[in-house]
Amino acid sequence: xxxxxxxxxQMTEDVELGELNNSLGFLVRVAQxxxxxxxxxxxxxxxxxxxxxxxxxxxxxxxxxxxGILAQTLRIKPAHMTKTxxxxxxxxxIEREIPDHDRRSVLLKLTEKGEAxxxxxxxxxxxxxxxxxxxxxxxxxxxxxxxxxxYVGLETGxxx
Length: 160
Fold this sequence. Notes:
Layout (H helix, E strand, L loop, with lengths): L8 H6 L9 H20 L8 H10 L3 E2 H8 L3 H13 L3 E4 L9 E4 L1 H15 L11 H15 L8
Antiparallel strand pairs: 1-3, 2-3
Helix pairs in contact: 3-6
């Protein structure tokens, strides 16, 4: 069986959570905080924020993806997407292209530096020593991933 989340003694001894113990919103939020804490432990010095590797990974898999489609797929607000794209471009990780046939679209692709960054960090995100250690068995992690994909509408073959 997996390990229980590590809570402070005060939280486990003095605080009654009541119905929050079964609230999906609350549990997902606490899980997100745990994953972010682990993320910053591993990548805090790399000037990378949670979710940004996901953007780079999807660009790696979909060279020339439209910025709007990427934002919609990853549920990123347009203003935040624009800011992050500019930062990635300033860092030399991506290139933007505005096609002649559709001047309103922005196409994104990784540069050689961006591809090298993704390759160098793939194992940190997806490998056996990935940053998001969870204390679950492989079967438990697979079940949780399956349920979360159902919850957010990412069942096999579906898109958000």
